[in-house]
Design brief:
The protein contains 3 helices and 2 strands. A two-stranded antiparallel sheet has the order 1-2. The protein is α+β, with helices and mostly antiparallel strands. The model has no long low-confidence stretch (mean pLDDT 79).
């Protein structure tokens, strides 16, 4: 059931070619679709969770090489501090890595929004 214990129904109107003496030429069919809607919401939630896990793995795989590059750049920065020709490119590497470093990807994974889906009842 929905989180607020509501039951969701689907109504279908069918026009008949041959009218019935009791109901005329129209029939209304009603069925409970509460479980189907809840299953669809659950599937959507699980898909988003799987996508988030994938995103976390990608962020991890990106951050590892970046950390190695940053460490190497810091060593070069210390060793070549007196040589102006190397200072600017090494400084760029260090600043760019420090700017984000893939943390935004991990942060978005940790702060998921509410499940999106059909909110009609």
């Amino acid at each position: 059931m929905d989180s607020d214990n509501q039951v969701v129904y689907e109504l279908n109107l069918l026009e008949l070619d041959t009218p019935s003496p009791v109901t005329g030429n129209r029939e209304v069919f009603m069925r409970d679709v509460t479980q189907e809607r809840e299953m669809a919401r659950q599937i959507a939630f699980e898909r988003r969770a799987a996508a988030g896990d994938l995103l976390t793995g990608v962020a991890h795989e990106v951050r590892n090489p970046l950390a190695a590059i940053q460490a190497a750049a810091q060593v070069l920065e210390q060793d070549l501090a007196s040589e102006a020709a190397y200072a600017a490119p090494i400084g760029i590497i260090c600043r760019q890595r420090a700017r984000d470093g893939g943390r935004r990807l991990a942060r978005e994974r940790r702060e998921p929004g509410p499940p999106r889906g059909d909110t009609r009842s």
